[in-house]
Amino acid sequence: MAPFFGRVLFSAKLNRSEITIEDDEDSISADNTGYALEVGYLPINSLLLAAGVAKENIDPIQASQIGFINSFTNIWTAEDDTIATLRAKYVTQIGNYYTNFEGATYFADETVYRLGADLYIDPTLSVGVSFADSTEEDFDTIFNVRAQKFFTPAFAVGVNYTTTDGADSYGINGTFRF
Questions:
Q1: Nearest in space to 114 (alpha carbons), one of 125, 93, 128
Q2: For residue 163, what are the domain limits?
Q3: DSSP string, 103-162
Q4: Which of 120, 130, 139, 147, by CA, is between 20 and 30 Å from 65?
């Protein structure tokens, strides 16, 4: 979680990744160091608007939450460009349940966008769905289903399933808040 100062959020990430993707016909390997910088603002309670820049940023936390295919697509579509990012997140109550709606867009030579929603069945359990797409030619839409369970206020376990034409990924993640 990035620090908030009043109604403003600042976030900085630096990561190192070594990736190998193989299929029956091809193998792609890449090593990179990526970064992401973001500034956000809460114009009203429960609404976050954020903008930033990123370069080759494969965020392992994001990958565990939305799936590797989604995370890799964010940087693969932009190739070596620096990416401008916009995202929004809104949390509200609908009936007896809280919901989270989020959207993100990554701008480079091609544009990638992702929309998602989560339903909090109780304060410790959420289920959600998302999809991502791109302006890149021959890009297949990516669909994701996820769930997360907090066993204590500081510890949670999540699972996700991501699919697109010809590729599926499954994930399990742990969250520890301190």
A1: 128
A2: 4-176
A3: EEEEESSSEEEEEEEEEEEETTEEEEEEEEEESSTTPPPEEEEEEEEEEETTEEEEEEEE
A4: 139
Using the 8-state DSSP alphabet, how is residue 66 labeled? H
Residue 113 exposure: Cα atoms within 13 Å on the Cβ side = 6
Quote the CA–CA distance of 2 and 15 in Å, as a whole number: 16
Identity (one letter) of the amino acid at 107? F
Residue 129 CB contacts under 8 Å (≥ 6 apart), including other chains: 116, 117, 143, 144, 145, 146
> Within 10 A of 177 (CB to CB), how many other CB atoms are there?
10
Q: What is the pTM of this model?
A: 0.73
The model's pLDDT over 78-124, given as tens digits with 9 standing for 90+, comes to 555 788 889 999 999 999 999 999 999 988 878 888 999 999 999 99
131 close to 143: Cβ distance less than 8 angstroms: yes
Rg of the chain (C-alpha set): 17
One-letter amino acid of 90: Y
The tally of domains found in the chain comes to 1
Integer Cα distance of 11 and 35 in angstroms: 11
- Is the distance from CB of 91 to CB of 99 less than 8 angstroms? yes
The confidence band for 42, taking pLDDT boundaries of 50, 70 and 90, is: very high
